[in-house]
Specification:
The chain is an alpha/beta fold. It contains four helices and six strands. 27% of the residues lie in helices and 11% in strands. Strand 3 and strand 4 form a beta hairpin. Bound molecules: zinc ion. Zinc ion (ZN) binds next to loops.
Length: 197
């Protein structure tokens, strides 16, 4: 797996290079946050001594910024930090609003790129899609992040979108066989004969 997602704008944080290596599970954990562009500044503030951050921020319009390479950890959700890719999402202070269509498409794109299977994460290192409030060990401050509306979108839109799509079935052109032609001809003859009687 590549460290950087080609569809994201790469904006490395000052501590991006010094984070420990991530155990590379096919795992995405989703968050919500108030700010749009303010997230980079928030993670960059000098008093962020614990290097709190996420790998990605997904804006309302579907744009994506990446702050840390996915080969390294981002400190966003306690026990999951060592192995999951952390994805922030803009909500402008309204996590009760659903993610926009563009955000959903961007989130699904990240999950596909990360190779997440169509299932929720387990609490221990695993593959799938999760959310911050899913387990207490990831969420020691008991945030509701990303909120009931967005959690429902994970379960009903994002995870189902990761299911392998069935291959399109081949269109088979039906050519009437000899027997069908014979029957059709026979029918015509029969009705002609019936008319004669
Ligand atoms: Zn969160």
């Amino acid at each position: 797996m590549q460290a950087r997602y080609s569809k994201a704008h790469w904006r490395p944080l000052r501590f991006a290079g010094s984070m420990p290596a991530r155990q590379q599970k096919h795992a995405v954990i989703l968050h919500t946050n108030g700010g749009g562009a303010a997230v980079f500044d928030y993670f960059s503030r000098p008093d962020n001594k614990d290097d709190i951050a996420s790998h990605f921020q997904v804006f309302n319009d579907g744009r994506i910024e990446q702050y840390i390479g996915c080969d390294k950890v981002a400190y966003a959700a306690y026990a999951s930090n060592g192995w999951a890719i952390q994805v922030e999402t803009e909500d402008d202070g309204h996590p009760e609003r659903p993610w926009t269509k563009a955000q959903l498409a961007a989130i699904i794109g990240i999950c596909k790129w990360a190779g997440c299977p169509a299932k929720p994460l387990a609490e221990s290192p695993s593959d799938g899609v999760g959310w911050h409030a899913q387990y207490h060990s990831w969420n020691l401050h008991s945030h509701s992040c990303p909120g009931a509306v967005r959690i429902a979108q994970i379960e009903h839109v994002i995870i189902p979108a990761l299911k392998p799509q069935p291959k399109p079935t081949k269109v088979v052109k039906v050519v009437p066989g000899r027997w069908a032609k014979f029957k059709a001809g026979h029918k015509k003859l029969w009705s002609w004969l019936k008319g004669k009687r």
